[in-house]
Every structure is written in structure tokens, then in C-alpha cells.
């Protein structure tokens, strides 16, 4: 095997002796992948096609002891280290350039306890894995809206989706977790056991260790829910978006309605003449009493004159995967996002104008309706602090060819700047890109210094830094 080098935490390059690699591989139950292995090219790639990094080693872990071995190996060498769950984060933090990747993608078990109303979820599980198992009992926990997203990264960053208004953030439903910290020690944390670390895990990202198991609270949902799409032509955008904004102010917690500004995909319920043309899409899910769903949703059909709608009872797990074709891996993606306490007329006008200039057919602006249960939690109760975010905007630039990079990124950045005066100044860490490290402190707001203190206690050398990083507090600040 060709001699390897690796990147250190100090930014240097160091040699990695062949005997060290061989010894590490022998101590793993899983496989240790080097650049010479045929699986290396596929394992170094993640969801975002713009991420093109070359780790020195990839440890495909089969269990907790593999993870301990990998952490110890990296710590002993001060080696650049990352953790891969679903590999779905926009910034590509799953892959450490020149470092060691702890790959958890084989650890996807989900165990549901219907009597206790809980699920124990392994760190490589995807949203679709959890939905499949929990829906067998008519239960669910709030997750995201793309079935291929990793549960670990979603939960550690806060996590929101169709159930958030009724049941809170993903992090709000975390009851306990098993975590291995930078010293290789295992911890079982909860509100009663090591509560400060548990608090930090509920929104603080991957800064504090490798979570090897999540226990989530489940709620009665489905298996059938009232969900679907209502689509309006773009010449009605101002009328229908103002109506939607006003409607969301009094919508019940059971109903979530998101607005998407994009070119119409070739959906079978839309007239062919609409395909490829700019539209406003309202995507919605009602998780409450089916007898109330049609009544609660009916006003959306009266915002204007829709060009198509597909509403009705459908499997919850199916709707969770409905947008997967629009978010398939491999495309080039760049995001910019804002939190809003409300959407003023001026903010909506800026969004409408921006969407008139989409730089590629796959680009979109979506406005997610939050509020409800998640907003009634104290901002200091969990590390996730954005409780005043009644709406989250994601400017989703997506395209296929590298020669479109500048045009698409510039558009997203321009939209971000135009909407900044109307935003809260906070942010959702799961939507922050690699070049937005300067937004981390504002994303955590009042909780940032407390998170730095927890970081110093559990990861004083900042071994876990390939993330939206929270540096450890200085010694005098942590005292």
C-alpha cells in the first residue's frame, strides 16, 4: 500500500505508517477504507455534488467499539476527524479532507416500543427507516421532509418538518442518547443523567461527540394523513402569498403549509402547459382528526384560481418521501437561509422578485411555516434557540454543471442579502453552508456561551470540529 499522509488539527501534513493503518484495520469489526480500495470513490461522496473531498481513511463502523477505536486513533495523532451519518448536510461536513471519516451508514437499526411510545434509533438511520418502523404502529416523531436525510444530523441540529407545529422540533422529542466523547468514554445522557451534555445535544450539532443511539418520543400519527399540493400560476403570486401568510396566523397546530416558488415539475395532476413554468406551490400536511382536515385545508383553494391540486388521504410515510425525486443525490447544491418572526409585505415582495430570476430549473425558494408547539418552548430549554422562527426560508440553488456554479451561488447570496433586513438575525444550523461559520454564534444566540462551556468540558481540544463549529470556551470563561 502506498504510504499515506493525513491532515492534523494544527493544519500540518503528517505521515501515516502502514503498520499503524494495518493495526487499526485489524481492531475494527467493520472495514477500514483507504484511497486504494475500490469502494473509496463512492464512500467519499455525499448528497451535495459540490463536495469533492479526499479523506485519508474511512472507518466503516459496525458498532460502538469501532467508534471508540476510531476516535482513539484520531485523537492520538491529532488527526482531522469527521462523522458521517446520512451524509446529507449541505456543507458536506461528513467528509474530512485529508482526515479520518467515522462512517456510521451501516448502523441503521430502529426499535419501536409501542407501549412506551418510544423509538431507539441507530446513528446511520435515515428518515425513511424511522418512518417505516414507527408507522407500523401508527406512530411518528417529528422529522424532516426528505426520506434520505440522516436522523442523527437532523436531530442534533434541531430538526423540523411537517409535525413540528403539533409536536415540536426533533430535538424536543429526544428523550435520551448514548454518546462517545472525544476521550473515548461512553455516556448515557438524559434530562436526569448528565443533563448539561443532553441539553447541548438537542440542537448543538456534532460538536460534543459521536451519538451512537437516540431515544425519541413517539406520537399517534397516521398511517393515513390528509396531505398534498395546491398549485397557483405565478401571475397570482402576490395575491396567494399574502393570503397564505394571513392564513398561517390562525392555522391550527395540526396543519403545516409551506410555500414553494419554483418551476413546475411534470406532475401528472398539472396541465402539460404548466410544466416548466414558474408557479407557487403550497405543500401541506394535516396530522389531526381526519374529520377536521378538509375544513381546515379548504381556504387554501380559495386564495386564487389554482392550476391544479392533489389533496386527500394518503400514507404519512409516502408523503414523507414525496419530494425525494426533487432532492436526489449528486446534483450541485448551495443554500442560503433566514429565520423570520413574521413575513412582512416587503419581505414577500423581495421573495417574489427573487423567484422571477431563478438561475436554473431546479432552483427554488421555500418558506416553511413553523410556530405552534416549537415556539412555546423556552429558547434556553434546549441548545436550539430559534423559537421565534415562525417561518424559515431556504434559498435552494440546485444545478448540474460546474460551469453554472458562480451564477447559481451569486443568485442565492443576492436573495439572502435582499431578505436580511426582514429576518431575525438567527439561523438554522442544518441549513448553513460551509462558508457561513460566522453565523454560528448568531444561530445559537443566548445559548452560545453555555454551549462553549459544554464544549470545553467534553471536547477541550476541539477534536470534533468538522461541523458548524462551536469552539471551546477559554479556561477563564469556563471557570
General description of the model:
Strand 7 (110-113) and strand 8 form a beta hairpin. The N and C termini lie far apart (48 Å). The protein is an alpha+beta fold and 479 residues long. 26% of the residues lie in helices and 24% in strands. The mean pLDDT is 96. The chain is globular.
Q: Which stretches of 5+ consecutive residues score pLDDT under 50?
A: none
Helix content: 25-40%
Overall SS class: alpha+beta
Largest sheet, in brief, is: 7 strands, antiparallel
Radius of gyration: 22 Å
Mean pLDDT: 96
> Helical region count?
15
Q: Which overall shape is indicated by the principal axes computed on the Cα atoms? A: globular
List keywords for this structure.
single chain; 479 residues; alpha+beta; 7-stranded antiparallel sheet; 5-stranded antiparallel sheet; 20 strands; 26% helix
Ordered list of secondary-structure elements with their pairings:
Layout: E1 4-7, E2 13-16, H1 18-26, E3 31-33, H2 40-43, E4 57-60, H3 64-77, E5 81-84, E6 100-103, E7 110-113, E8 118-121, H4 127-135, E9 139-140, H5 151-156, H6 164-167, E10 174-180, E11 186-190, H7 195-201, E12 210-217, E13 219-220, E14 224-233, H8 237-248, E15 255-263, E16 278-286, H9 290-297, E17 308-315, H10 316-320, E18 332-340, H11 345-355, E19 364-369, E20 391-399, H12 405-419, H13 440-444, H14 448-458, H15 475-478
Parallel strand pairs: 4-6, 5-6
Antiparallel strand pairs: 1-2, 3-4, 7-8, 8-12, 9-13, 10-11, 10-12, 14-16, 14-17, 15-16, 15-19, 18-20, 19-20
Helix pairs in contact: 8-11, 11-12
Summarize the structure.
The protein is of the alpha+beta class.
Amino acid at each position: 500500500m502506498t504510504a499515506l499522509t493525513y491532515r492534523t488539527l494544527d493544519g500540518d501534513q503528517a505521515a501515516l505508517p502502514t503498520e499503524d493503518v494495518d493495526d487499526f484495520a485489524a481492531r475494527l469489526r467493520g472495514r477500514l477504507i483507504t484511497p486504494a480500495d475500490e469502494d473509496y470513490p463512492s464512500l467519499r461522496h455525499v448528497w451535495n455534488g459540490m463536495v469533492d473531498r479526499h479523506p485519508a481513511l474511512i472507518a466503516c463502523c459496525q458498532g460502538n467499539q469501532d467508534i471508540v477505536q476510531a476516535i482513539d486513533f484520531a485523537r492520538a495523532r491529532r488527526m482531522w476527524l469527521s462523522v458521517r451519518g446520512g451524509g446529507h448536510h449541505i456543507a458536506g461536513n461528513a467528509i474530512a479532507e485529508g482526515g479520518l471519516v467515522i462512517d456510521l451508514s451501516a448502523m441503521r437499526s430502529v426499535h419501536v416500543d409501542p407501549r412506551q411510545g418510544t423509538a431507539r434509533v441507530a446513528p446511520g438511520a435515515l428518515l425513511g427507516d424511522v418512518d417505516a418502523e414507527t408507522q407500523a404502529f401508527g406512530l411518528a416523531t417529528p422529522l424532516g421532509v426528505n426520506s434520505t436525510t440522516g436522523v442523527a444530523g437532523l436531530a442534533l441540529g434541531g430538526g423540523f418538518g411537517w409535525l413540528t407545529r403539533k409536536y415540536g422540533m426533533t430535538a424536543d422529542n429526544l428523550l435520551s442518547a448514548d454518546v462517545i466523547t472525544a476521550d473515548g468514554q461512553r455516556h448515557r445522557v438524559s434530562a436526569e443523567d448528565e443533563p448539561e451534555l443532553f441539553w447541548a445535544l438537542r440542537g448543538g450539532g456534532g460538536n460534543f461527540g459521536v451519538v451512537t443511539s437516540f431515544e425519541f418520543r413517539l406520537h399517534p400519527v397516521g398511517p393515513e394523513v390528509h396531505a398534498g399540493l395546491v398549485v397557483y400560476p405565478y401571475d397570482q403570486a402576490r395575491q396567494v402569498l399574502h393570503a397564505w401568510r394571513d392564513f398561517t396566523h390562525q392555522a391550527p397546530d395540526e396543519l403545516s403549509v409551506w410555500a414553494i416558488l419554483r418551476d413546475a415539475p411534470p406532475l401528472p395532476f398539472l396541465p402539460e402547459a404548466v410544466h416548466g413554468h414558474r408557479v407557487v406551490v403550497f405543500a401541506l400536511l394535516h396530522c389531526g382528526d381526519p374529520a377536521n382536515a378538509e375544513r381546515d385545508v379548504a381556504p387554501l383553494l380559495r386564495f386564487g384560481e389554482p392550476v391544479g391540486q392533489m389533496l386527500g388521504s394518503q400514507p404519512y410515510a409516502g408523503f414523507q418521501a414525496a419530494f425525494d425525486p426533487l432532492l436526489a443525490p449528486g446534483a450541485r447544491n448551495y443554500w442560503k437561509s433566514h429565520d423570520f418572526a413574521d413575513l412582512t409585505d416587503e419581505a414577500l415582495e423581495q421573495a417574489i422578485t427573487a423567484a422571477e430570476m431563478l438561475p436554473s430549473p431546479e432552483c427554488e425558494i421555500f418558506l416553511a411555516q413553523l410556530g405552534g408547539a416549537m415556539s412555546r418552548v423556552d429558547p434556553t430549554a434546549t441548545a436550539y434557540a430559534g423559537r421565534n422562527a415562525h417561518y424559515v426560508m431556504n434559498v435552494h440553488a440546485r444545478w448540474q454543471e460546474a460551469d453554472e456554479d458562480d451564477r447559481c451561488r451569486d443568485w442565492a447570496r443576492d436573495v439572502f442579502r435582499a431578505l436580511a433586513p426582514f429576518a431575525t438575525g438567527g439561523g438554522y444550523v442544518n441549513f448553513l453552508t460551509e462558508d457561513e461559520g460566522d453565523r454560528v454564534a448568531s444561530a445559537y444566540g443566548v445559548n452560545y456561551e453555555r454551549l462553549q462551556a459544554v464544549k470545553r468540558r467534553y471536547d477541550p481540544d476541539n477534536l470534533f470540529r468538522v461541523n458548524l463549529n462551536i469552539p471551546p470556551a477559554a479556561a477563564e470563561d469556563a471557570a
